[in-house]
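note to self: dont lose this again. the chain is below, predicted strucutre after it. 248 aa total, dont forget to put it in the shared folder this time
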Amino acid sequence: MRHPADETRRRLGVLWSGLVAVLAAALAANLAAPSMAGAAIRVALGRSFGTGDITVTVKSWPAPALWWGDIGVLSVAARSLRVGQLDVAAFDAILTRVDVDPGLLYGRRVLAVRSIGSGIARVMVTADDLARLVRAQPAVKAVTVRLSPGTMILDGRVTVLGTDIPAVVAGHLVVRDAVHVDLVVDRVTVMGGLPVPPDVVTRLASSINPVLDVGRLPFDLRLTRVAIGNGVVLLQAETGRGPAGQAP
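---
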């Protein structure tokens, strides 16, 4: 016959083993939360961006908050991707206090963002990708794009008052609104050095703007700044302070 004290110790041992197993499972789940959340977001963004070259890092405290869709910091870095109609060389974003739908994220690999505290992103577009957009405009034909710090140059044929003329257009970029960038024409040079009346320059600028339309950026990002470097256009965008939609 088993002694009562032995039975008590046995039950305590089983209880202790069960408690340890539960704690170990909880710890393992908490440790796995960042990697699982990052992997799910990477799949969702890769499907939208059309690229597998994506790095995602998520942080949250406490870690179990990730299972509820509460992401403290979300960092995204993608290369050679597509955003709307725009080919993008690089996209980097850091977002804070991101609230997502956990059921959609972990169950279907869909990134449905409910709100974002704040965020900033950088979008890099090359001269070749920008040239493809510019060539799609009726007023510009057979154009090449050259980018140097602060200056954008279009070299090709432009249509002014119904006439195609060879021209070199030089200008700088400004943000028009949350999704559009305009080219401010600083000078126009036509074959033979003929003078270009100011009203013609104005008509030309109107016909080619907006020179860049980013469409709907992921995470409800809105353009805030634009800069021109050597061979690239650098766009800065921000988001936050309110509800967000489906991302991207």
